[in-house]
Specification:
single chain; 377 residues; alpha/beta; Aspartate Aminotransferase, domain 1; Aspartate Aminotransferase, domain 2; seven-stranded mixed β-sheet; three-stranded antiparallel β-sheet; 12 strands; binds pyridoxal-5'-phosphate; pyridoxal phosphate; Cysteine desulfurase family protein; iron
């Protein structure tokens, strides 16, 4: 099976699995327990993972909150800020996002909208991106409490100008969050250079880590002052009171190792993904002139993600037909029963949406694996 759905999830990295195994076997202590070695070992392992994630993202270790994944991180940050600052009558309850976010952001906004928050969704360009001036104007006009804009889009691969947007939010001192789930290990992320970017979400299973773990980065207001938000989970006060519940040590260790691998391999990974992507797009361009149409801006997108239309071909039928040999996607794995809200917002017709295939590569693939596409004429 040729697996080309790496934006949906990735195979666990061998080094990650190796790092996790002791914490599923002999090292089973609860890091919240005290004094005996099993607990202390678990605590040390969690602290190491926190360092690894912080190093990858350029933040302080105590700004890393372990969660069950990016869905939870998005919910935690958006609902947490909305509730903490915007719940009281007369408070600023305005929240801004885009029309092409992952459902874990869109549905969180809808949930808050139904509860009386003032939510707005920005339009996007033909590649599902927002512009700096557009966001600047909207933020000046609306004065949102929080703006949430994804770094890289999971369906079409387009990148938003997060560094520049962080400057806008640094100047206007409004809260800014990005869902960076799809760009980790593919785009350099250094939050220390972006003080305007206060919150970030990421997930383990998109970067060779295990499923069921992720991180929410909640930057401090200053060296000593933590940013307050209402937690989703109340209980024993783990994770600095942001997220109660016994820590999933094995998963956290896996996330830490995956972060380290992503950091170490970033340049090679990007270079290899671009080579493979060029190889494959050249095949499509050579063999299928006039029969395929690319949805993304080829110069400015997540390396290794190709979103394209096979003109006149139903995507689901094609994916099913190839499914014995190749794993492909029509867009996202989360909402595959609904026509894509992303392509729709990018101005694609229903027909174009139904012709769209998403191919997401992995740097370990070989060109010879991709030769099968040369047979499609
Ligand atoms: N955000 C984006 C952009 C995604 O692509 C995904 C997963 O598809 C998520 C959030 C959700 O991540 P998780 O599976 O860790 O909840």
């Amino acid at each position: 099976m040729l697996y080309l759905d790496n934006s949906a999830t990735t195979k666990i990295h061998p080094e990650v699995l190796e790092a996790m195994m002791p914490y599923l076997q002999e090292e089973y202590g609860n890091p919240s327990s005290k004094f005996y070695s099993l607990a202390e070992n678990a605590k040390k392992a969690v602290a190491k993972a926190r360092e690894q994630v912080a190093t990858l993202l350029g933040c302080d270790p105590d700004e890393v909150v372990f969660t069950s994944g990016a869905t939870e991180s998005n919910n935690m940050i958006i609902k947490g800020i909305a509730d903490y600052y915007g719940r009281e009558a007369g408070a600023n309850n305005r929240l801004l996002t885009t029309k092409v976010e992952h459902p874990s952001v869109i549905e969180t906004f809808n949930f808050l909208g139904e509860r009386g928050y003032n939510v707005s969704f920005l339009d996007v360009d033909q590649y599902a991106r927002v512009g700096v001036e557009q966001v600047k104007e909207a933020a000046a006009k609306m004065q949102p409490l929080l703006t949430s804009i994804m770094w890289g889009n999971n369906e079409i691969g387009s990148l938003n100008p997060i560094e520049e947007l962080a400057k806008v939010f640094e100047e206007n001192r409004q809260f800014f969050h990005t869902d960076a789930t799809q760009v980790i290990g593919k785009v350099p992320v250094d939050m220390s250079k972006m003080p305007g970017l206060r919150f970030l979400s990421m997930s383990g299973h998109k970067i060779g880590g295990p499923k069921g773990v992720g991180a929410a980065i909640i930057r401090k207001q200053s060296k000593e002052i933590y940013t307050r938000l209402t937690p989703l989970m109340h209980g024993g006060g783990q994770e600095n009171n942001y997220r109660s519940g016994t820590l999933a040590v094995h998963n956290i260790v896996g996330l830490g190792k995956a972060a380290e691998v992503a950091e170490t391999n970033l340049e090679n990974n990007v270079q290899r993904l671009k080579e493979l992507e060029n190889y494959l797009t050249d095949i499509f361009k050579k063999n299928l002139t006039g029969k395929v149409k690319f949805n993304s801006d080829e110069q400015d997108k997540i390396p290794g993600l190709i979103s394209l239309q096979f003109i006149g071909v139903n995507n689901e039928l094609l994916i099913k037909k190839l499914s014995a040999y190749i794993a492909l996607s029509s867009g996202s794995a989360c909402s595959s029963s609904k026509p894509s809200h992303v392509l729709n917002a990018a101005g694609k017709s229903l027909e174009e949406v139904r012709q769209t295939i998403r191919i997401t590569l992995d740097s370990k693939i070989d060109e010879s694996d991709l030769k099968v596409f040369d047979k499609i004429k």
